[in-house]
Amino acid sequence: MALKPISVSQLNDYIGRVIGTDPLLGAVVVKGEISNLKYHTSGHVYFSIIDAASKINCFLPREYAMQLHYQLDDGMEVTLTGSVNVFKKNGTYSIYVKNVEVSGAGNLAIAFEKMKEKLDKEGLFDQAHKKPIPKFPDKIGVITSNTGAAVRDILKILKSRNNLVDIVVFPVLVQGEAAAADIAGMIDYVNEHFGDIDTLIVGRGGGSADDLWAFNEEIVARSIYASQIPIISAVGHEIDFTISDLVADLRAETPTAAAQLAVPDTMQLKERLLDLKEHLYVQLSNKLMYNRLRIDNLAAEMRSHLHSLIVQRQNELERYRLVLEENNPKKILENGYSIITAENGHVVSSIGDLACGQTLRVSLKDGDAKCLVTEIGSERHE
Q1: How much is the pTM?
Q2: Where is the Exonuclease VII large subunit C-terminal domain (predicted)?
Q3: What pLDDT score was predicted for residue 1?
Q4: Which of 188, 282, 344, 356 is least enclosed, having the fewest CB within 10 Å?
């Protein structure tokens, strides 16, 4: 008995029902290599998965594609999870993909390395671009969730270390699809409207790699790089490392550590100042004592030098006195000599100074006498 013919659509419907109700095909996991990859403007992704002998078409809907943290590429070894669907219009079947796992490494690790490589080539991690963190800030900005433990830890440490600094908290989403745009937008907003903020702390507390992923997004990295305000990245725990850490001006291992790095401890500063004061006092005292000893030594040397000069001058005066005394005319007169002077007061020392009839004064040891020259003789020869 001949079978009743059915339409093409009926056959495809039947095949679709059979495939749709098969438990294996409804939750299939397939491993292979991506080929003919196409990103549609709608956000959907079309590609094939192949092995050495076969090929299967694949469809990745927009809502699942947005959950990927990395770009798919031709030749990438992946494991797909999804279901097999029949496209009735052309009678083909494909895998309706819900999840893509990169073979040999975790998806987030692959995405992290790809983003790291891309931004590193653009120079976003260059040390030359990093700004110094102010040592004595007046105002600190904190970009994080206003309900998490991180903001409480940061505020606690900031206030306990420094009661002089002002703190402004800018609440943002720190996980989920909208978090990256929220964080990046807030960094831009603070830079535009809060020019008096000296340092920004950007981060969140610990969590899974997926929870922290917003701080690996390119939009956040570029906002951190463009920030005119120095940024301390504080994401997760000590072992967590994000793209934000690499771009930021300074990476803190935890939000608590970020608060410690952002402000100086006023109590430590006070103790340091007291130590410096004591050190300065000792130094000045020692300097004063040293200079006082130098002054005393200089004064003693000066007194000794002046005494030597005085003694030297006294000796010189004594020598002059003796010379004058030896040459005192009165002493000569006492030895039997006399001094003859003309009327003009000049001492007569030669016959040539005399003239007959000239009046002279003769000075003796006990008085003077006037004499008249009556005769002038020549030099006597014995």
Answers
A1: 0.58
A2: 124-320
A3: 53
A4: 344
